[in-house]
Design goal:
This protein is α/β, with parallel strands linked by helices. It is built from eight helices and five strands. It has a five-stranded parallel β-sheet with strand order 2-3-1-4-5, with helices on both faces. The structure holds adenosine-5'-triphosphate and magnesium ion.
Length: 217
């Protein structure tokens, strides 16, 4: 912060599968730490023991023939978020600790709204209910074609690992997710910064750090 006293920032990193969110969240956390900001790095769905259990449920394929319905999926995401915000994010911010979060409310708009065609007004209402109005200061959207992200995810995956329920969705689903993310960035230009994540990781990190320096330091 330019006036000397350090503010606690809430920064979310969004984007499709394999965009580099987790890599950039770690690097951005270290970038803030190195500049004297107390900071934690967390992720959604998850971030607390209970929310991580819900992550497991919502990402894995259910046993036998049962399907997870879109409404169930949405409410599981929001339940995990309600817990995460109250247990971890808000207490950190209240005590002056910045929070970097790998996915947050915008992923729900993009995946359940864009990907699954659920009503965006309902999702925004539930996002607001789950967060109690806790909105990120900044959101870095790592944008890239879904094909590129998938190539990276497949390369990262160990030979015996299965894809999760979202990775298993068709390319068309992921194209709708990408469009929904970009529409959110247009709708909330003050909060969003779009980063070209199709570049090399070094280049993406450079863009992320440049944006962080402009916004924060
Ligand atoms: N710009 C890049 N170029 C090439 N490889 C990359 C790039 N960014 C990340 N990777 C690699 O792609 C894989 C996915 O990166 P990462 O886990 O950071 O993405 P993610 O957005 O968190 O993915 P997911 O949505 O699956 O959580 C990792 O193996 C990572 O090292
Ligand atoms: Mg990740």
């Amino acid at each position: 912060m330019k006036d000397g006293k350090k503010k606690a920032y809430f920064i979310t990193i969004e984007g499709p599968e394999g965009a580099g969110k987790s890599s950039c969240a770690d690097i951005l956390t270290r970038h803030l730490e190195a500049r004297g900001y107390p900071v934690i790095c967390t992720r959604e769905p998850g971030g607390t023991p209970l929310a991580e259990k819900l992550r497991e449920v919502v990402k894995s394929k259910p046993d036998q023939d049962e399907v997870i319905h879109p409404e169930t999926e949405l409410l599981l995401m929001e339940a995990a978020r309600a817990q995460h915000v109250r247990e971890k994010i808000s207490p950190a911010l209240d005590s002056g600790i910045s929070v970097i979060c790998d996915r947050f409310t915008d992923s729900t708009c993009a995946y359940q709204g864009g990907g699954r065609n659920m009503d965006m007004g309902t999702i925004e209402f539930l996002n607001d209910f789950a967060t109690g109005g806790c909105v990120p200061d900044f959101t870095l959207l790592l944008d890239l074609p879904p094909e590129t992200g998938f190539e990276r995810v497949v390369r990262r995956r160990s030979a015996d690992a299965d894809n999760d329920r979202f990775e298993a969705e068709a390319l068309d689903f992921h194209r709708k997710v990408r469009s929904a993310f970009l529409a959110l960035a247009e709708k909330y230009p003050q909060r969003f910064r779009v980063i070209d994540a199709s570049q090399t990781l070094d280049n993406v990190v450079e863009q992320v750090e440049k944006v962080a320096n402009e916004l924060i330091f």
